[in-house]
Amino acid sequence: MNSAAFLPPLPEGAERSVVIGRSPGFHLKPPPAPAGLREFITSDAQLFETIHMGSVEVDAKRWRLQVDGLVRRPFSIGLDDLRRLPSISVTAFHECFGSPLVPAEGNLWRVGNVRWTGVPLAVLLEQAQLEAGATHVWSDGLDSGEFGGRRMNRYRKDLPISKALSHEVLVAYEMNGAPLTRERGGPARLVVPGWFGTNMTKWLCRLSIQDRRANSPFTTDWYNRDSEHEGKVIQEPVWAVEPNSMITHPAPDDTISTDDVEVKGWAWSNNGIGGVALSADGGATWQEAEVRPRREFEWQQFAATLALPRTPGPMSIVARARDADGSIQPLSGTRNTAHSVQINRLLSGPKTADTGT
User: Dihedral sign, CA of 330, 111, 109, 136?
Assistant: First the structure.
């Protein structure tokens, strides 16, 4: 039986009349397999799409973003004026957490790496002048409909003020140098580098500064997970991305006839990658890969020439990332399970010792 979750009407200036079209229903466009994501910047065509309640077509000329709540100077702003404010571009990995209805038992690799352009959220909050007691920014989207057996009149998420004031958090209007499309949440969306995509509200229409977490099924019921602290299991929101990685070369079922193989891939996490270890013998031995340093919030390339066991037949290469704080990617059973690629080992001939003659 369906239940409803209707939030109060939007204030004047964030009216829903700017919506001129809808495509109702959940939509998922998966990315290519990891071997198909070898480019540093992921194109729009290759980037995954996750839309909970259907996409929204917005009249960009009439669209306005409302900023209100615990502020001394509430205001609304249109797209042209938003574009006139100071802007920055940030390259960042973009990862889907997965379904909040069914716990993930393995890695989905719904991820890409894109360049966002927009106005730092901190610029808008400074203009609004926060009042004492402000702890969270609630973000509302113009999408509405049904998800998880519940009907909702809009999508709502929240950010702690500490994250909202970080320099990299944007109200973005471009991706990879082009205006945001309907499917990407245009004309403007929230972008929170280092955090899962569920926090990056699309078709953004309102930012409300409050003294508590948001009252939305997408915050109270979904996108939370168990976390252990001091021996107790508590529910925490799905915010920061844990260490993850994927192998882009070699591809599954490649045949390797040499004694070693060049292994490449991407690794990412909220606080950056400290290292990636590779194994071709079931984890008996590990070899460290070279990892490209992170400059912004982009995924980091790793590469190594990995020695292979002298055993013919199928074998698996495993990549296991650790973040800058030392947290290690699990080998099994979680949504960020380490990536394993099976290759075919073909021996070219017996290995002989060098006699020096």
Answer: positive
Output the six-digit token pair for 242.
């844990």
* Buried/exposed code over 308-341 (b: 16+ C-beta within 10 A; e: otherwise): beeeeeebebbbbbbbeeeeebeeeebbbbbbbb
The conformational region for residue 351 under phi > 0 = left, psi -120 to 50 = alpha, else beta, is beta
Pairing mode, if any, of strands 64-69 and 204-210? parallel
Arithmetic mean of pLDDT over the chain: 92
pLDDT-derived band at 106 (thresholds 50, 70, 90) equals confident
Which is higher by pLDDT, 321 or 225? 321
CA distances from 350 to 194, 235, 259, 288, 355 (A): 48, 56, 11, 27, 15
- DSSP assignment of 27-71 equals EEEPPPPGGG--SSSPPTTTS-EEESSEEEEE-TTT-EEEEEESB
Return the residue matching tokens 């037949």.
313
Q: How confident is the model at residue 1 (pLDDT cuts 50, 70, 90)?
A: very low
pLDDT value at residue 349: 60
What is the Cα 219 distance to its own chain's centre? 17
Within 13 A of 183's CA, how many CA atoms are on the CB side? 10
Task: Write down all domains in the chain, each with its CATH number in brackets.
Answer: 3-237 (3.90.420.10), 244-345 (2.60.40.650)
CB 206 within 8 A of CB 139: yes
d(CA 137, CA 161): 6
Q: Render pLDDT for 297-331 as a digit per residue (tens, 0 to 9).
A: 999 999 999 999 989 999 999 999 999 999 999 99
Mean pLDDT value across residues 82-101:
96
* Rounded CA separation 6/90 (Å): 34
